[in-house]
Amino acid sequence: MSVRKLKPITSAQRFRVVNGFDAITTDKPEKSLLAPNKRSGGRNNRGKMTMRQIGGGHKRKYRIIDFKRNKTGIPGEVMSIEYDPNRTAFIALLNYQDGEKSYIIAQNGLQVGQNVVSGREGIAPEIGNAMPLSQIPFGTIISCIELRPGQGAVMARSAGAFAQLMARDGKFATVKLPSGETRLVLAECMATIGVVSNSDHQLTVSGKAGRTRWLGRRPRVRPVVMNPVDHPMGGGEGKSSGGHPRSRNGIPAKGYRTRSRTKASNKYIVERRKK
Fold first, then answer.
1. CA-to-CA separations, 53 to 156, 213, 219, 222, in angstroms, rounded
2. Cα 195 to chain center, whole Å?
3. How open is the CA angle 187-190-196, to the nearest 5 degrees?
4. Same domain as 139, residue 22
5. Which one of 6, 156, 200, 268 has the fewest beta carbons within 10 angstroms of its own beta carbon?
6. What are the pLDDT digits (tens) for 86-137?
């Protein structure tokens, strides 16, 4: 009697996590909110490759996202939670009472049929609602934060991201960001209540090289196997090359601060992010 030997489980198989697509309710996007998304493949107008590690990838249509949330006082019903190939977070399709439709970044716990609203006064601090920092209670978990009034959300809008409103002083609010940095933001800036959806995205393991190619990324060559003419970390006999990690231009990759000491926004940073 022959005994069949089982193949050992690889570490990639052991820790592979599938994206939590259970929250997604439809696979057909709203056609009126789609736009062309043409890619260059890393080539210029003559077809010459000018950017490395870019090319291929699946075709995509861009979903027009309402980052400004400037449709004030009009409730919008959540029609669906959808996947967006252009970002890590899920998106929600809203149908406003006046008939207009728009996409927003979906927060954890946002359900189909729920109503969300944005505005500067009289808005309850509930998941999915957008309101200025001056109206949000202390300690509230927020996301999709503006840096300048009317600019639209630029901070804490990727999968699983969130910030916390710590305090207010005059026209500024103190916000603790996902990086650990604490900074001042104008209290008139808008933010959305809740944590950005798809927090399991960081646990995803690709599983094979082809899945990375679907994302439009071509293979990357390690610097230590290059020649000295190609990279500062290249050259040497055998495996003796390397040295301090640095970029192709010689800029150190670990521990080297690249932020300008004279940058105008430095005065708004209360506490730097943790190393």
1. 27, 10, 6, 12
2. 12
3. 125
4. yes
5. 6
6. 999 999 999 999 999 999 999 999 999 999 999 999 899 999 999 999 999 9
- Both tokens of residue 2? 């022959």
- With tokens 């996202």, the residue in question is 65
Q: Do the domain assignments include residue 102?
A: yes
Looking at the structure, tell me whether residues 98 and 176 fall in a common domain: yes
**For the chain, which ranges sit under pLDDT 70?**
1-20
Neighbours of 76 (CB within 10 A): 25
Task: Supply the mean pLDDT for the chain.
Answer: 91
User: Do 164 and 38 belong together in one domain?
Assistant: yes
Residues 6+ apart with CB under 8 A from 257: none
Are 224 and 241 a contacting pair, CB within 8 Å? yes
* Neighbour count for residue 231 (Cβ, 10 Å): 20
> Are residue 148 and residue 270 in the same domain, yes or no?
no
Please give the model's pTM, rounded to 2 decimal places.
0.87
Whether 235 and 153 share a structural domain = no
pLDDT of 15 reads: 36
Structurally, the chain folds into a number of domains equal to 2
Q: Final residue of a domain: which of 167, 201, 235?
A: 201
Q: Does residue 5 sit within a domain?
A: no
Co-location of 120 and 240 in the same domain: no
